[in-house]
């Protein structure tokens, strides 16, 4: 009985109303503080940086109060200038807060050099061609040469020069195959 009397007393009701008002003021104040500190609704549209070189990218991002970080170079793309932006995160047109990092993937200066594997000489053309294609090379001319082994690779050439196992050529280089014709 005393409990119900206390709950409906003026002192308890006044304390309860005061606690509810205080909680409301604290929550409202915290939300307003967070809006101000996090720059709520103040965003920047990310520009399209593709095909721009780093010095131009730096100027654009500095004007917009953004930062950049280069992730890595990708595979060479001949449609883009060397050392230009191939990809970016976040994508162009997205909105971000100021001082946000834009992550960039750059186009390298050229194709990577790939090593010519061992044990290609005296293997069949059918074995060698897929190996070279898988490494990123292109097969050029097939030159027939008198040899007892028909279809066997006698040598590899690039721009008329004989190449050996361990030599390095840029990816997508054209390699000519000298093949035995089985005439001896």
UniProtKB/TrEMBL annotation:
Domain PASTA intervals: 40-108
Protein name as catalogued: PASTA domain-containing protein
Short name of any one Pfam family annotated for the protein: PASTA
Keywords: Membrane, Transmembrane, Transmembrane helix
Highest classification ranks of the organism: Bacteria, Pseudomonadati, Bacteroidota, Flavobacteriia, Flavobacteriales
Annotated transmembrane regions: 12-34
Domain of life: Bacteria
